[in-house]
Amino acid sequence: MEYSLDTKDLDRIEDILREDIIELGVNCVFLIDLAGNIISSLDSGKKKHDVYALAALAAGNFGAVGAMADIMGEDYSILFHKGKEENIHFSKVMDNFLLVTTFSEEVSLGFLRMKVSEVHDKLREILAG
């Protein structure tokens, strides 16, 4: 997979993630490619995570679930894992990217999914080049 983003594109991505996702109250949001490379990463300061490890594991997790989906003749574009104190939501952006958010019970999953859908449209414009 090959893509090219300039500084202006990266700044626009960061602005979108800050305004549309971080300001919702999520703990962390990052955009990665399917190899686990971080394109953009922001956090609210509430929790600090090793985003490099999370990005690699998120890409692997999504890849494994994608392989299961292929076997079943499905295409999963969203994953959600609920924890005791924090949840993680994965959403496929186009064919080559994942948007990953971590959030607590203070953030509604339904509202997050709606905002992520809106963010997808904005990110597609930038990532499609």
Provide structural commentary.
This protein is of the alpha+beta class and 129 residues long. The chain has helices at 7-20, 51-72, 109-127, and strands spanning 28-33, 38-43, 78-81, 87-93, 97-103. It has a five-stranded antiparallel β-sheet with strand order 2-1-5-4-3, sandwiched between helices. A hairpin with a 4-residue loop joins β1 and β2 (38-43).
Helix and strand composition category: alpha+beta
- Oligomeric status of the shown chains? single chain
Q: Please give the share of residues in helix.
A: 40-55%
The biggest beta sheet reads: 5 strands, antiparallel
List the total number of helices. 3
Overall 3D form: globular
Annotation, overall tally of beta strands: 5
Element order, helices and strands? Answer: HEEHEEEH
Q: Taking Cα atoms only, what radius of gyration do you get, to the nearest Å?
A: 14 Å
Which residue ranges are poorly predicted, with pLDDT under 50 across at least 5 consecutive positions? none
Question: Strand order, biggest sheet?
Answer: 2-1-5-4-3
Strand content: 15-25%
What is the mean predicted local confidence, pLDDT?
93
Distance between the termini: 14 Å
